[in-house]
## 1
Amino acid sequence: MRVFVFLNGRQSSAQFYRKHYESCREKGDAVICANGGYRLAQQCGIEPDLLIGDLDSLHDEQIEKGIEVRRYPRNKDL
């Protein structure tokens, strides 16, 4: 099983990530998005299995129904 993790930050084109994902994925692989990495997955047309983080850069209405969400407090520096 492979796990594809989408993060926020400097990115190549969505086409680059989509092509890599399609060439490597196998049945049973998982997709995890951390915070703003969810937007990149959306641009690639990839639905994550899990969205994790404080999600302060996303609005709840932007998150598709059916995606497991693990939300952590913004005050995470402790």
## 2
Amino acid sequence: AIRFCAQLGYDIEPATLEAISTHRKLIDNISGERIREELSKTLLADPMAIVLLHQTKLLSRIMPELDICFGAKQNNPYHRYDVGIHSLVAASSCDKDLLLRWTMLLHDIGKPDTISTDSEGVDHFYDHQRVSAEKAEKLMKRLRFDNATLEKVKKLILE
């Protein structure tokens, strides 16, 4: 439903969103490959639709590494969104290339684990690229990405 929403511009009725949330545990019966394909199609169509995965709590079951980024503040003059929204905006802003979209989606998933705040109240995320690359590798293995794509995404995250 969320992929169709992204591809076709549909709105999902509130009752349907509630049903998705209520039955979210059923996603555990779906293969990593199938989830990867649906997520990839969503990323190519409209990455912002991933907000619906977060709102229905599906994201916490399929990509908890990204889910915790929603609400993770970035008190920094160079950022205006939380880490989750920032990642979706970044993925939406790049070319419709699956490798780039996955890279931008996952490039900051290490930030919640690396946050520190200086004496002036500004947040920093030292070494978040390394942590993001490690988390991205685990996530991508779980979703059964091929090794070549996994390695390219990790390399781009680290650069």
## 3
Amino acid sequence: RDVVINQFNGLLCNPRNSSDLAKKMEELYLLSEEDRSTLGKNGRDIVINKFNIDIVIDKYLKLLNSIKLR
């Protein structure tokens, strides 16, 4: 949920709703190869830009430093 942007890098379904999940799985299956590839590329870009090890460590260190200063 925190990584997926609906229709940009995946499809979100309603929580605890198996019929909605099945519907979204079918929608993904019916997408063209090009559209599925675009979703995958967009997802990879998000992960690289949001969860890059340097970014995660920097945020973690800033959090630790802010706690130490209090």
